[in-house]
Write a structure and sequence with these properties.
Elements lengths: L1 E5 L3 H13 L3 E4 L6 H8 L3 E5 L7 H8 L7 E5 L4 H9 L4 E4 L4 H17 L8 E4 L2 E4 L4 E4 L2 E4 L2 H12 L5 E2 H9 L7 H17 L6 E4 L3 E4 L1
Parallel strand pairs: 1-2, 1-3, 3-4, 4-5
Antiparallel strand pairs: 6-7, 7-8, 8-9, 10-12, 11-12
Keywords: DNA-binding, Phosphoprotein, Transcription, Transcription regulation
Protein name: Stage 0 sporulation protein A homolog
């Protein structure tokens, strides 16, 4: 599982990353403290380790921003150990709080416990974020992201993008998409699907995603 480390002490960040690697986790380390939310989207982690004292904005701010589009568990790590900071971390959406200095074994134990609680009891849990090349689809906020641009999708457009991105480089039949859109076996106009796809293509074009959805005549649609 990917763990995203948001820590401005490079030595500590590297130490944490190496510790996680020894335990079989894949770690991403933040590079741009002004665009943390974009880096979170790119990494699509299963858990975030967040320092409180950060350049530009503090960890509480970034936690609240991440909570706008992702439910990923967040553990705060900080040298600040007063009750108000711990309460603030919970109010901002944090899942745990570890004070520095801390034992690597305790950190790993807390990570394992939170990952078990969050993911192990739901094997059917689907990712809230689907990535394909430089394109990111966020199921929670209903937006598609490309580089520094994004656009909001309607309910139907989101469903179309979701099924296409879950079947990357595979043809998805029109019948499959219609069933996903309306969740019903009753007849739906083929023209309605065509209209939705055309509107979606225009939105994608507006943020620089050109010729993304390809029509396979008599078969359906494919992205690649």
């Amino acid at each position: 599982m990917d763990i995203f480390i948001i820590e401005d002490d490079k030595a500590l960040s590297r130490e944490i990353s190496l510790t996680l690697s020894k335990w079989g986790y894949s770690a991403c380390e933040v590079n741009d403290f002004e665009n943390i939310t974009n880096e979170v989207l790119q990494c699509n982690p299963k858990l975030i380790l967040m320092d409180v004292n950060l350049p530009c904005y503090d960890g509480f701010y970034w936690c609240s921003q991440i909570r706008n589009f992702m439910k990923v568990p967040i553990i705060f790590i900080s040298s600040r150990d007063n009750d108000m900071d711990i309460i603030m971390s919970i109010n901002m959406g944090g899942d745990d709080y570890i004070t520095k200095p801390f034992s690597p074994q305790i950190l790993v134990a807390k990570i394992q416990a939170i990952l078990r609680r969050t993911y192990s009891y739901n094997n059917d849990l689907k990712s809230e974020i689907i990535k394909f090349k430089d394109i990111t689809l966020n199921i929670v906020d209903g937006k598609i992201y490309f580089k520094d641009e994004n656009t909001e999708l309607t309910k139907n457009e989101l469903k179309i993008m979701k099924i296409l991105m879950e079947n990357q480089e595979k043809i998805v039949s029109r019948d499959e998409i219609i069933e996903e859109l309306w969740d019903t076996d009753e007849f739906i106009s083929e023209n309605t699907l065509t209209v939705n796809v055309n509107r979606l293509r225009k939105k994608l074009d507006s943020i620089g995603i050109n010729d993304f959805i390809e029509t396979k005549k008599g078969q359906g649609y494919i992205i690649r």
